[in-house]
Amino acid sequence: MFITAFAILVMFGSACLIIVNLRAIMQDTVEAILNATAGGRASDRAVPSAAFAMLWMLIFILCYL
């Protein structure tokens, strides 16, 4: 029972931290995606860069569903 309550508390705390810092998180994510796609175009790594960008978008979308 204690472990379940602790796990729920940690999840709630993590969600609160994400919501409070959502603007900064999204700015950093957009910057990482732009850097990954720009580097991919320059070095013929477009497919891995697109996969990386899609992975992060999927993570953020699934966090809020």
Q: Main traits of this protein?
A:
elongated; mainly alpha; 65 residues; 89% helix
Could you give the order of the helices and strands?
HHH
- What profile does the largest beta sheet have? none
Basic shape = elongated
Number of strands: 0
Low-confidence stretches: none
How does the helix and strand content classify structurally?
mainly alpha
- The end-to-end distance, rounded to whole angstroms, is 26 Å
How confident is the prediction overall: mean pLDDT? 84
Q: Please give the share of residues in helix.
A: over 70%
Total of DSSP H or I helical runs spanning 4+ residues? 3
Task: Name the beta content range.
Answer: under 5%
Radius of gyration: 16 Å
Describe the structure.
The protein is mainly alpha-helical. It has a domain at 21-65. The protein is 89% helix and 0% strand. The protein has 3 helices and no strands. The protein has helices spanning 2-20, 22-42, 46-63. The radius of gyration is 16 Å and the shape is elongated. The model has no long low-confidence stretch (mean pLDDT 84).
Give a quick rundown of the structure.
With 65 residues, the protein is an all-alpha fold. The protein has helices at residues 2-20, 22-42, 46-63.
Please give the structural blueprint.
Elements: H1 2-20, H2 22-42, H3 46-63
